[in-house]
## 1
Amino acid sequence: MRKSRPKKRILLPDPKFNDVLVTRFVNNLMLRGKKNLAYNIFYDAIEIVSAKTKEDGLEVFKKALANVTPNVEVRSRRIGGATFQIPSEIRPERKMSIGMKHLINFSRKRNEKGMAGKLAGEIVAAFKEEGAAFKRKEDTHRMADANKAFSHFRF
């Protein structure tokens, strides 16, 4: 166990939209420390999204992220030799982090050309409340709902 909690690192807003949320997303998107490439991929994806939806790309992205962000999750807890899936609320920072990671992971698995195209496709799908990332959120909520009988074991 740690003696004290680590300090929260302060993120600088991104250069184009001046938004800290975008910086967090780009940090999750980045591979092997290539932040500039990750920014280029994200900005290209936002341009593709605004061309597809005829709306502001950043607003579509924020709505899509809100659509794939889960509110509850199940955690395994061992009680008396049996393992129970216990539904629990998620902290706001973790919610956002899970949503971002689902959006990125499922966009990487898409069959489109280039990461910007894949990310744009997943963002548009999430905005319309469809796609793999949104389905994952629905599955998580369904699993928590199915196991709400064990919620009195909360820790």
## 2
Amino acid sequence: MQISVTFRHVDSNEEIKEYAQEKLARLKKYMDAPMNLQVILTQEKHRHRVEVLLKSDGLSITAEEETGDFFSSIDAVIDNLERQLKKQKQKLKKQKESREERQWRYRMEVIAAESSSEEKGEPQVIVSRNLYAKPMSLEEAVMQMKLSDNEFIVFTDSSSETINVLYRRKDGNFGLIQPEIA
């Protein structure tokens, strides 16, 4: 967490600066990524304004409060930032849950081929397991195939939201089965 404190129209005060840094440290619990915080403390006559700009992992949040002294302004701006970060965290949680709901569930069954010594009849299911079509890009699916020794992977293309199958060819390359959308 990187914090820079700027004083405008007022002399630098180490006590206020430490108080602001101590209070801003509470925001760590809302973000896993490193944060860059810029605090601007401005005094105009009897008004004390605190403005905080938070940047972290593509997220940018601004909050400002104005009261009679810097300490209460800092407390108010921290409450404002905490509210915004909680809202952002809930929003990300809902997005993650909706992505997980979009995972398609499939059943894979391996059918035994008839041998010449067996009687002619219905094929039998030998192996059965559930597969989940996780949303990902084609590049991510290729990377997963390279890291695993699976013969195929079923996934939901994150750009088109269609079910695709990536399989390993005998020549070492990969093949892709995509549904044709009419």
## 3
Amino acid sequence: MSRIGRKPIILPKGTKLELQNSEIVVTGPKGSLRRPFLEGLGVNIDGSTVTVQRTGEDKKMKGLHGLMRTLIANMVDGVHKGFEKKLEIIGIGYRSELQGNNIIFYLGYSHPITFPLPAGISAQVEKQTLLTIKGIDKELVGQTAAKIRALRRPDAYKNKGIKYADEKLRKKAGKSGK
């Protein structure tokens, strides 16, 4: 059996998990999340403990066993605590500002870039060069942060651009003149 798939998921107080029409629904203090449940797997809800079992022993089911357990655990954490990603903007004149449900970026291009936030995601601009993306869906928070980072990736020679706050950048040496 999968080591991760065997681990039980403990539901915190105020969090509820249900199986409705082959869909997992997790409700908590921060909101509600839905995800289709994979066929060939079963879920056992016992009070505040949830375990995922698989029906078959084929290779595909073994791989999906740990995946489904991790997805459910992320849903439980999201509706209970939420997730966040921090981004830093580095460069002279590079900055961002929040206007309603859009983030306006000034990244050295000839025009500002307007980035609309997807539903379920909120952003907070601390200073003008520090951006925090928050939400209850871990996958959506990570995807949104990756799309924002892709607007201006960090340059290898000057390290200018948008990077994750915990990302370490290696600066390349330029040409050495004789």
